[in-house]
TrEMBL record:
<dbReference type="InterPro" id="IPR003680">
    <property type="entry name" value="Flavodoxin_fold"/>
</dbReference>
<dbReference type="InterPro" id="IPR050104">
    <property type="entry name" value="FMN-dep_NADH:Q_OxRdtase_AzoR1"/>
</dbReference>
<dbReference type="Pfam" id="PF02525">
    <property type="entry name" value="Flavodoxin_2"/>
</dbReference>
<protein>
    <submittedName>
        <fullName>NAD(P)H-dependent oxidoreductase</fullName>
    </submittedName>
</protein>
<dbReference type="InterPro" id="IPR029039">
    <property type="entry name" value="Flavoprotein-like_sf"/>
</dbReference>
<feature type="domain" description="Flavodoxin-like fold">
    <location>
        <begin position="5"/>
        <end position="187"/>
    </location>
</feature>
């Protein structure tokens, strides 16, 4: 019997009418599996400070991942596919995405180092799909996706990482619906109609 894929939808879309969220939901409808949404806007994910870092390091050194601070890492490694929806802000993404990645990056849970010092992923995740939209051009400076791709491949060992984007949405005279439709058609071509 084939088991259903677990899809983790990491939603970093702040605005209720987010165009990034529209594209992400469209994509999720194309994927076969059970989706669990993590709305980062509703989570209290703080960046690591000294106190939290020392507490985390103590748990990690004891190989004790029972504390609630590890829930995001456990959720991440339990997924087969991760979809991250993040608007293109200041050449990358909202700051909460970085805090989320800090919370997920736990040595001994999402990755470990080999004897040679090479990071090796420990989770089930086989594919990460990054969805973003921008008011202007993204061009070669998609630093949000580039960062996510570097962490997911270099630290977690995930080999299949892709980006779907819609850009130039706020340019005067832009055909917003047409631009979004083009990205949806790209999604259709990759994941089926």
């Amino acid at each position: 019997m084939k088991t259903m894929k677990k899809i983790l939808f990491v939603n970093a879309c702040v605005r209720p009418q987010s165009r990034t969220n529209v594209l992400a939901k469209y994509l999720l409808d194309k994927l076969d599996g059970q989706t669990e949404e993590l709305d980062l806007g509703k989570e209290d994910i703080e960046p690591l400070n000294l106190e939290r870092l020392e507490k985390r390091d103590l748990y990690i050194s004891n190989k004790d991942f029972s504390d609630d601070m590890f829930r995001y890492a456990k959720q991440f490694v339990g997924a087969d596919i991760v979809v991250i929806a993040a608007p293109y802000w200041d050449l990358s993404f909202p700051a909460v995405v970085k805090s989320y990645i800090e919370a997920v990056s736990v040595q001994g849970l999402t990755f470990h180092y080999t004897e040679e010092g090479i990071p090796e992923g420990l989770g089930n995740v086989k594919k990460v799909i990054y969805v973003t939209t921008a008011g202007g051009p993204i061009g070669e400076f998609n630093l949000g996706f580039d960062y996510v791709k570097a962490v997911c491949s270099g630290l977690y060992g995930i080999g299949d990482i892709v980006c779907h984007k819609a850009e130039m949405l706020d340019i005067v005279g832009a055909d917003v619906e047409g631009i979004l439709k083009n990205t949806m058609q790209e999604i259709d071509q990759v994941y089926g109609v």
